Amino acid sequence: MQSLFAEHALLPSGWARNVLLTWDERGVLTSVTTDAQANSGAFRAPGPLVPGMPNLHSHAFQRAFAGLTEHRSSGASNDSFWSWRELMYRFAGAITPEQLRLIATALYVEMLEAGYTSVCEFHYLHHDADGLPYADDATLSACLIEAASSAGIGLTLLPVLYQTSGFGGKPANAGQRRFLRSTDNMLALLERLKPLCESQGASLGLAPHSLRAVPPEALTEAVAGLTSLDATAPIHIHIAEQTGEVDACQAWSGQRPVQWLLDHAPVDERWCLVHATHMTAEESRQAARTGAVAGICPSTEANLGDGIFDSASWIDASGRWGIGSDSHACVNAAEELMQFEYSQRLALRERNVLSSEAQSSVATAMTLAAVAGGAQASGRPVAGLGVGQRMDAVALDAGHPALASLPSPDLMLSAHVFASHRTSAIHTVWSGGRVRVEAGYHPLAAQTQRAFVAARRTLLTTA
């Protein structure tokens, strides 16, 4: 049994004083006691303790080309997600299993240092560069499981079903050849991966890539097959990310993507609607009422010029949400929260938009909401500092210049979210009850960064 004492800790019910937490050898919290006395064996947190953040949307390999697409495409009058995607396909087509493992390991170490303690990996690289299956069909999935285990981050693996390049069964193009699977083949992969994930403490779900990439009959069969395998497994889907997708869906079906999905799929608490940027207010209300989580990826949505999520309609309907770093243009949980709040301020010309009646502090309210939504989307017990949950926690450094001398933990968290970027106010990170980051650094940081740089160098010559 291990224990930790924090003078201030953010529990699911809000801030509490003098909190003593204990957890077992599995990394599961067995007691959370407030107004407690520190025992002699307890580690003392160096500042406010907050729950670790689940990252609900990641494409690990895309970290290798973050920052490399910030130039106008030749001959393009305006760049968009669609022109960015062509550059992404070059890296997707060239990466090897070993490069994927090295890039993902470095990324997951980076995530831990940035306050993420678990990640949902939306994994659509399945085959070799020619689009042929590896001898072991789970080769690339296994690379990600190994990377998460090496870094010490919790994992929800979401193999992606991808079959077409557009609505109406438009054939896939050459850039998508590594992504493609039949529905039966995907379900066979899930059966292969389930014991592998369980042996590593990872969760397994399914990601129908999008309505444009998964025909209706395949979506129905895949969801039914997953449910037969595990009725609680999470389901993630890209939806209504760009206006071009909305227009194409309407031309195909006469409906907008979110409305079509709600009418044709059993959307409920298992589902994560990734991006959901372009919804009508009524779509927002209907989707929120299903209990699904909205997967907001603020830095990627800004980087790609997707648009701004309508938080007002979603939250008015008691919608749940979490954050993801998606393409990893930014790997920082606090900055994603900041970017989300700032996007709402710009859209509404208001301040402190994502505070709540229960929590007037924006940073506190957003942290609690994002942890709860991220935990639901991950299908893992990581919903905060409560009994029965994983001991995933982040201790802030009360001596950091952005936090020092502030009189309350909510002000310290606010400074961490809104005023500490380009430096880090994170001191210690626990994932699964084990210290993964100490004094701001992961013990594998230098080693994995060198490996990442070498893998990227090689990719730049082949992509």
Describe this structure in words.
There is one protein chain. The protein has 463 residues and is an alpha/beta fold. The chain contains 14 helices and 17 strands. It has helices at residues 81-94, 97-113, 139-151, 183-199, 216-229, 243-253, 257-264, 281-289, 298-303, 311-316, 333-348, 362-378, 409-419, 445-462; strands at 2-11, 14-23, 29-33, 43-44, 49-51, 53-58, 116-123, 154-161, 203-204, 207-208, 235-239, 271-275, 293-296, 320-323, 393-396, 426-431, 434-437. The strands form 4 sheets. Strands 6, 7, 8, 9 and 10 form a 5-stranded parallel beta sheet that branches. A hairpin with a 2-residue loop joins strand 1 (2-11) and strand 2 (14-23). The longest helix is centred in the C-terminal third of the chain and has 18 residues, at 445-462. It is globular. The termini are far apart. The mean pLDDT is 96.
Keywords:
4-stranded mixed β-sheet; 5-stranded parallel β-sheet; single chain; 463 residues; 14 helices; alpha/beta; 38% helix
- Strand elements, count: 17
Radius of gyration over alpha carbons?
Answer: 21 Å
Task: Please give the share of residues in helix.
Answer: 25-40%
Q: In angstroms, what separates the terminal alpha carbons?
A: 49 Å
The major beta sheet can be summarized as: 5 strands, parallel
Structural class category: alpha/beta
Mean pLDDT: 96
Q: Give the count of helical stretches.
A: 14
Oligomeric status: single chain
Q: Beta-strand percentage?
A: 15-25%
Shape: globular
Unreliably modeled segments: none
